[in-house]
Amino acid sequence: MNKTIIYAIVSICILLVCSIVAYSFMSPGSGTSSPSPTLTITPSSTTNPASTPASLTQQVTDMTGRVVTVPNNITRIIAIKAGCLRMLTYMDARSLICAVEQTETTPDGRPYSLANPEYATLSIIGPAHGGDPELIASQNPDVVFVTYTTADNLNALQSQLGVPVIGLLYGGLDSAESRQTLYEGFNLIGQVLHKEARATELINYINGLVDDLNTRTSNIADVDKPTVYIGGLSASGSHGFTSTSLTYSPFVLTNAKNVLSHLELNSTSVVNIDLEAVPGLNPEIIFIDYNGLTLAREDVQNHLDVFNQLDAIDNGKVYGVLGYNWYTTNFDTSLVDAYYVGSVLYPSQFSDIDPVQKANEIYTFMCGTPVYEQMVALYGPFGQVTIN
Q1: Looking at the domain assignment, is residue 173 inside a domain?
Q2: I want to staple 171 with a disulfide (CB 3.0 to 4.6 A). Which of 25, 181, 212, 259 is the partner?
């Protein structure tokens, strides 16, 4: 064969082979023996907030009806407005408190503060009844709890702080409805802080005390009950003898025969009655809140013509009780007072109760430490007092 033709055929074959090899590298879908290189992408260490796993947060509905997203891992909390730090103390959240209002650095008769002096060493986030938003934010709390406010105010504060804000209602002890509100607050705190067991324990304990007081006193006939009066109650400050209440919790809890029950009072909170009405009340037993004892004595000295008509004063039937209205209600002291009141009004029904031991039991369970003696140092002991 002609050499020229042979060279031409060989050249064409070489060109075809080169073209096939070149195409196999250019085409991503060709060939099975030499797969295309794989590009490995390493994820960034920064997580997109929009893709944060739901397990890191939970949604709760606060007591004003707001739905709030809170972190599951909470290590720093702040309580603002009256009673809020008290509720968190009862809920055994003391170690999570990172800062307090100015007023919380001076105990002054609040058992939860007396029992936890470390509160006085924490950073201050402003004055009572709300603090300062900038100072609150500077403490980097995970959650802020607030009492005595509205949903709109809570939303505004949450927007300003950039952290979840939980609204609590405070409740009380003087009715089933007010106790239910109190318990709902404990349950909400328990849900946010994963302290549901403590909420249940606390509710059961308070219910147990309320039931015990009622069991001891509910079957006593009215004719066998002495008439009683409470004076010197605090309300935004100290007041004298005429500062009283139709729904004084220790009386309500012991089914006491309050001499105010026949008066047409327009309020179920603390009120000041007319001095002229006092002689007509003439209770058999008088209790005076130690917060108002000095002022009550002044009232008596200034109006001897009025108070000399009261049999309880003549008979030495006047007794001092611990004040429980200080930055709203100290529920522990209210229960402590109830057992003392019961022991005075119905000695046989409370013969097994030592009011001082019961006081320290209640303070220990609710606040963490027995503080009756510290309360006595501030107020005075359970016992008879003179006001004339």
Answers
A1: yes
A2: 181
User: Cα torsion for 234, 238, 241, 246, to the nearest 10°?
Assistant: -20
Is residue 91 classed as helix, strand or coil in its secondary structure? Answer: coil
Helix (H) or strand (E) segment spanning residue 13: helix 3-26
Partners of 144 in beta bridges? 78, 165
Tell me whether residue 278 is in a domain: yes
Same domain, 174 and 234: no
- Is-contact 346 213, C-beta < 8 A? no
Spatial CA neighbour of 184 closest among 361, 333, 332, 65:
65
| 190 and 227, same domain (yes or no) | no
Tell me the residue ranges of DSSP E strands in the chain.
57-61, 67-71, 77-80, 97-100, 123-124, 143-147, 165-168, 227-231, 243-245, 257-258, 270-272, 285-289, 318-321, 383-384
Q: What are phi and psi of 37, to 5 degrees?
A: -60, 145
- Tokens, residue 1: 């064969």
Q: pLDDT tens for residues 173-223?
A: 999 999 999 999 999 999 999 999 999 999 999 999 999 999 999 999 999
